[in-house]
Specification:
Layout (H helix, E strand, L loop, with lengths): L1 H11 L7 H7 L9 H11 L12 H7 L4 H15 L3 H35 L3 E6 L2 E6 L8 E5 L7 E13 L1 H4 L5 E2 L17 E2 L4 E13 L5 H5 L12 H32 L3 H15 L4 H18 L2 E3 L3 H6 L4 E4 L11 E6 L4 E3 L22 H12 L4 E4 L4 E4 L2 H12 L4 H7 L2 E5 L7 E7 L5 E7 L1 H5 L2 E6 L2 E4 L2 H13 L3 E10 L8 H4 L3 E10 L4 H12 L3 E5 L4 H11 L7 E3 H6 L2 H10 L2 E3 L3 H13 L4 E5 L5 H6 L2 E5 L5 H6 L2 E3 L4 H41 L8 H11 L3 H4 L24 H27 L4 H23 L9 H5 L2 H19 L1 H7 L6 H29 L3
Helix pairs in contact: 4-6, 5-6, 5-10, 6-11, 6-27, 9-10, 10-26, 10-27, 11-26, 13-14, 17-20, 19-26, 22-23, 26-29, 26-30, 27-30, 29-30, 29-34, 30-32, 30-34, 32-33
The structure holds adenosine-5'-triphosphate.
Main location: membrane
InterPro entries: ATPase_P-typ_cation-transptr_C, ATPase_P-typ_cation-transptr_N, ATPase_P-typ_cyto_dom_N, ATPase_P-typ_P_site, ATPase_P-typ_TM_dom_sf, ATPase_P-typ_transduc_dom_A_sf, ATPase_P-type_domA, Cation_transp_ATPase_P-type
GO molecular function, one term: P-type sodium:potassium-exchanging transporter activity
């Protein structure tokens, strides 16, 4: 690869200064592109067009990283202290806890990292190339020198290109040159000595196309490119961290200090006031502090987040930045594009209107076969209609192709529909395009909402054809096409026709033309500003997605507002909004209305409005900001290069995976693989589940640790025999590490997740409910354990048996509590609740086997000072556990509503 790459590099040194034909000849390429066999051969020779990515951390380093945590340091100090006191078993158990945690964390995080890497591959960028004369998309890595590549606004340039054609092409080269103003490109050679930023005939890999379109031949790939030379490492693996994880880590550090100070005080108290031998007291408080520390929490939360990412990917929502997993759960407004997100983006031209006639077209989809537009094949009487349809075919970049089952579009679906329409009107698209070759164009841009193309007409004359938003096109025209020539523009007639079509929910395009002198070489904005002849309008149907209708209903019950922000016509948008269930007469504002609003009226207007039509990307940004100023958590979709600022600004920026530009994807937190609104709602659903699960993990871990610790603290405080020996406290920690708490990370969604209001975005992890539970459950567990302890002693059990009962009691309580915590928002007294999930059952099996071993294996009895229990004692423990479960459920039932708002 290196040799080949440097080979290409050397020839590239002066590429910018050479003629295009020269470069093409040297690369043995042609305007139709390489053949696929040749491309394959070159790929073998030059290697993939990829830069080495940041290597993943070595597994051993990842394993070591598991220990890099304040809570674990604390545990290790505890182990050291125990060893120095000669309590080798205690020290060994602490180390075992640490090790089990590290292994579970290491394995699960490894799995999570792999899954994330696989998910990232789903959104690996593609490049548009010509191969065998056909425009196709290929993975960027498969580009080879000599490939002809098409680039347009929003693309990342996929390799170093010598430009063959550039149309309004401006490229942001900041990553290479540091220059923040996009540089204008053209196909001419530049001076040999030109610096990188002045090589206007080149497009460099990794730079971002700001506007326009271009075609170039690949001159260097992979490490041979300019970016390859300066940056050896790109795209290193994203760290698994989120605000919540940082919050947990901060909490962990504080907690460690708290445990440390508390333990020291307790030690002083035990030795000074309770006459404990200092080494007994020390080992007891060490065990206690160790049991109090939630060392497994950070790893379990990371795993919960990673599982959320995987579940979202399975529902077509690919997370690019991990914090989005959390934010998604708090989203209170979704601002969505219309076309393709709420609608299917499967366009069919349905209405063709000229000054002479209105035709309604039959058929759906792109198949032109069955529905001839004119029974006679298109007679003279329809000349105006035919020029309109021909303009639609020529002012068009889409291609249709048929595979075994159906017709497909390569390019914009609306343009595909225009090709189908032309075929229904008996045009042969290939022939017509060959007869009217295109000489130049002004590409479509959402900012000016039209595109124009310059063509040679068969009679040696030239013509500019324009299509776009009908108001924009009408503003350019003063005449209209009519039988036998042209007539003055009848603006009233057209606005009625447009309103008719838009009122039916059709997306409307206007068309116009202008004859050009025979020597015209190109088309400029000045050529289309005025004096055009209006040809007519075409209305397209683009039905709402059924799943979007359902998803919008779901949003309503979930307290999430939906706003449609579209570039389309107000009436079209309003009709589609009605069909989607966004409201019978949803309030609509256009971009112009927004511009006219006084500053102080903007926020109120945005609050009341459901549909924003004819908006530009700047409006999107202002809308997001206004919503955020009211404390809303905003998810916003986008696809174009100009959407990047609003995507970045939104709490969750969502880019379209299919029609989105690379620029939009890079600016966003999440990419929709299917461009489908329903997938956003699915991701919110999963986001809420993740948040619930994190709360469950915390809500289970902290109170159970508290319960254990409190049992021992009370013993010291009230000066009675320790209900558990230090090594037994540690055992409880060991058996629970990586079992019960971890199982909660895998919990499925609770049934009512999308029937709750969004959570308050500022609610921290330790909500009043969790704090309440920490206190109540700790006290409850400690009370029950001590009760069992004294009952056992009072009924003639020896100390070993009483302590064994306490250990088993605690573990049984924690198991029952787990079942209670699994449903925060409803009762756990259900069949599914009792059945558990596979992870819960596995964890349960491990804990039960562990407890049986602890209680009945002689060797364990020797190590842990436990002793076998009778069936009656065992049954008593289980009965108390079950009763406590009922009590906790009653408590949840009464407090559920109070804490629901969290
Ligand atoms: P949304 O923002 O919901 O996706 P949209 O696709 O209509 O809606 P834009 O892509 O910004 O938004 O398009 C705005 C308008 O520009 C369209 O309503 C249409 O009138 C016009 N338009 C869109 N695509 C083309 C095109 N390829 N050629 C000419 N005009 C176009």
């Amino acid at each position: 690869m290196t040799e080949a790459a440097t080979g290409t590099r050397r020839s590239c040194a002066a590429t910018h200064a050479r003629d295009v034909a020269d470069v093409m000849a040297e690369l043995a390429s042609s305007p139709q592109g390489l053949t696929s066999e040749e491309a394959k051969r070159r790929l073998l020779q030059h290697g993939p067009n990829a830069l080495p990515t940041g290597t993943r951390r070595h597994p051993f380093l990842r394993f070591l990283a598991q220990f890099n945590n304040a809570l674990i340091y604390f545990m290790l100090v505890g182990a050291l202290a125990a060893a120095m006191l000669g309590h080798l078993v205690d020290s060994g158990v602490i180390l075992a806890v640490v090790l089990v945690n590290a292994i579970v964390g290491f394995l699960q995080e490894g799995k999570a990292e792999n899954a994330l890497a696989a998910i990232r591959d789903l959104i690996a960028p593609k490049a548009h190339v010509l191969r065998d004369g056909q425009r196709i998309s290929v993975p960027m890595a498969e580009l080879v020198p000599g490939d002809i590549v098409l680039i347009e606004a929003g693309d990342r340039v996929p390799a170093d290109l010598r430009l063959l054609r550039a149309r309004s092409l401006r490229i942001d080269e900041a990553i290479l040159t540091g220059e923040s103003v996009a540089s204008t490109k053209r196909a001419e050679p530049s001076a040999d000595a030109a610096a990188l930023g002045d090589q206007h005939g080149m497009a460099f890999s990794g730079t971002l196309v700001a506007t326009g379109q271009g075609t170039g031949v690949v001159v260097a790939t992979g490490l041979g490119t300019e970016i390859g030379r300066i940056s050896e490492l790109l795209g290193s693996v994203e760290e698994l961290t989120t605000p919540l994880l940082r919050q947990i880590n901060r909490f962990g550090r504080r907690f460690t200090w708290f445990a440390f100070v508390g333990a020291a005080a307790l030690f002083a108290f035990a030795v000074g006031l309770r006459d404990f031998a200092w080494d007994d007291a020390l080992i007891a408080v060490v065990a206690l502090a160790v049991s109090l520390v939630p060392e497994g929490l950070p790893a379990v939360i990371t795993i919960t987040l990673a599982i959320g990412v995987q579940r979202m990917a399975a529902r077509n929502a690919v997370i690019r930045r991990l914090p989005a997993v959390e934010t998604l759960g708090a989203v209170s407004v979704i601002c969505s594009d219309k076309t393709g997100t709420l609608t299917r983006n499967e366009m069919t031209a349905r209405r063709v209107v000229t000054s002479e006639e209105t035709l309604l077209v039959q058929g759906a989809g792109y198949d032109p076969a069955e529905h001839r537009l004119f029974a006679d094949g298109g007679s003279e009487g329809h000349a105006t209609t035919l020029s309109l349809i021909r303009a639609g075919l020529l002012c068009n970049d889409a291609r249709l192709h048929r595979d075994d089952t159906a017709w497909h579009v390569e390019g914009d679906p609306m343009e595909g529909a225009l090709v189908t329409l032309a075929m229904k009107a008996a045009f042969d698209s290939g022939e017509t395009r060959a007869e009217w070759p295109r000489l130049d164009e002004i590409p479509f841009d959402a900012a000016h909402r039209f595109m124009a193309t310059l063509h040679h007409m068969p009679m040696a004359e030239k013509v500019v054809l324009v299509k776009g938003a009908p108001e924009a096109i009408l503003a350019m025209c003063d005449r209209q096409e009519a039988r036998g020539g042209s007539a003055p523009l009848d603006a009233g007639y057209w606005s009625e026709r447009i309103a008719e079509a838009a009122g039916e929910g059709e997306r409307v395009l206007g068309f116009a033309m202008r004859p050009m002198p025979g020597d015209a070489q190109g088309v400029d904005f000045a050529d289309v500003e005025r004096g055009l002849v209006f040809l007519g309008i075409i209305g397209f149907i683009d039905p709402p997605r059924d799943e979007a209708i359902r998803a919008i209903a779901k949003c309503r019950s979930a307290g999430i507002a939906v706003r449609m922000i579209t570039g389309d016509h107000a009436a079209t948008a309003q009709t589609i909004a009605r069909q989607l269930g966004l409201g019978e007469d949803a309030a609509v504002l256009t971009g112009q209305d927004l511009d006219r609003l006084p500053l102080d009226g903007f926020a109120a207007a945005v609050r009341e409005t459901v549909v924003f039509a004819r908006t530009s990307p700047e409006h999107k940004l202002r809308i997001v900001e206004a919503l955020q100023a009211e404390g809303r958590v905003v998810a916003m979709t986008g696809d174009g290069v100009n959407d990047a600022p609003s995507l970045k600004r939104a709490d969750v920026g969502i880019a379209m995976g299919i029609k989105g530009t690379e620029a939009a994807k890079e600016a966003s937190e999440m990419v929709l693989m299917d461009d489908n609104f329903a997938s956003i709602v699915a991701a919110v659903h999963e986001g809420r589940t993740v948040h619930d699960n994190i709360r469950k993990v915390v809500g289970w871990t902290l109170p159970t640790n508290g319960g254990e610790a409190l049992t021992v603290i009370m013993a010291i405080f009230f000066n009675f025999a320790m209900p558990m020996s230090p090594v037994q406290i540690l055992w409880v920690n060991l058996i629970l590490a990586g079992t019960l708490g971890l199982a909660l990370a895998f919990e499925p969604s609770e049934p009512g997740v999308m029937r709750r209001q969004p959570r308050r975005p500022d609610a921290g992890l330790l909500t009043p409910f969790i704090l309440w539970r920490i206190i109540v459950v700790s006290l409850f567990f400690a009370g029950i354990s001590l009760g069992v302890f004294f009952w056992a002693l009072g009924h003639g059990r020896d100390l070993e048996t009483a302590r064994t009962m306490v250990v088993n009691m605690l573990v049984v309580l924690e198991i029952f509590y787990l079942f209670s915590v699994r449903y925060l928002h409803m009762t756990s007294f259900t069949y599914t609740g009792a059945k558990g999930t596979t992870p819960v059952l596995i964890a349960l099996a491990v804990v039960i086997l562990g407890q049986l071993a602890f209680t009945y294996l002689p060797v364990m009895n020797a190590i842990f000072g436990s002793s076998p229990l009778t069936l009656a004692d065992g049954t008593l423990i289980l009965a108390i556990g079950a009763a406590s479960f009922v009590l906790l459920e009653v408590e949840k039932h009464f407090l559920r509503d109070r804490f629901r708002a969290e």
